[in-house]
Structure formats: structure tokens, C-alpha cells
Amino acid sequence: MADEKQPNQHAKRTFLVVVDESEELNKALLYACRRAENNNGDVALLFVIDQVEFQSWLSVGELMRAEQREAAETKVNVVAQLVKERIGREPKIIIREGVPVDQVLQVLDEDRSITTLVLGAASDKEGPGPLVTQLTGLLIGKLRVPVIIVPGTLSDDQIVTIT
Fold first, then answer.
1. Which of 39, 19, 1 is nearest to 119 (CA)?
2. How does pLDDT run across 15-25, given as a tens digit for each residue?
3. Can you give the residue ranges of every domain in the chain?
4. pLDDT tens digit string along 103-120?
5. Which end of the chain has fewer CB atoms < 10 Å from its terminal CB, N or C?
6. Judging by beta carbons within 10 Å of its beta carbon (0-12, 13-18, 19+), is residue 139 exposed, middle or buried?
């Protein structure tokens, strides 16, 4: 008798990529798209808008929030078009406001269809990036999915080869 708690081995895999302005986004996106394509899976895109707090100037805060939302939608739609071109399917788009690491954890907790988090690591001397640093440090135990970290030093050809 099958254990009802076991995941369906044939369930579609969804790879979550955090969309931002970093160069390593392209590496993570290529990796996620290749894996989704090869596994008949999907890609989900998360864009986190910085929280705007203008309590004394509510109208200014609302205007800033609306501008940030518009910029986020523009950026994520460009990335979504790349995903569609690569895998032939629309990605799931998630736009949140807040602290990026908190929002990643919340999305993973809420959306059980996401099976893998794919992050790109910066290759400069500053370190891999704040999200990679936070999620591979003390917060790693809070994740319910595997994390794939794609080094920024990999070429696109190398990513294609390993996926």
C-alpha cells in the first residue's frame, strides 16, 4: 500500500527563480529553464519590491509604491517572455513587497507546487549575494525544498551541459 504522504513521482516540478537586477539572474534563469524543459516542469518567477514606508506622506508613499509595482511588472514580464521562449510555457509570476529573504520563505511555504529554488551566485569579491548568503546560512533549515546555486562563473554552454 502506497504511503499517502509520499509525493507523486510524476507530479510536475516547478523551479522558483528570484528576479532582480543582478547579473547572476541570467545564470539562474537559464538553469531553471533547462531543468524545466528537460523535466516537463514549470518556472515560477518571484520579484520582491522594497517596502515603502511614508506614514506622514501617505500619498507620496502610495505613488512610490505604484511606481515600484509598475517597474516590477515591466521587469518580470521581460523575464517571463524569456522563459516562454525557452520552455514554450508561461511562467507563474509572483510579485511581493517586503524583505526578499522573508518573501522567498513565505512563497515556498504557501506554494507547495514549487519543488526547487534556483539562485545565481555572484562571482565577484563581494560574495555570492545577500540572498544566497542568507538562505545558505542559518535559514537553510527553514527551507522545505532543495536550493540550487548556479555559480556566476559558469558559461551558458557549461550550464547547458550540466542540465
1. 19
2. 999 999 999 99
3. 14-162
4. 999 999 999 999 999 999
5. N
6. middle
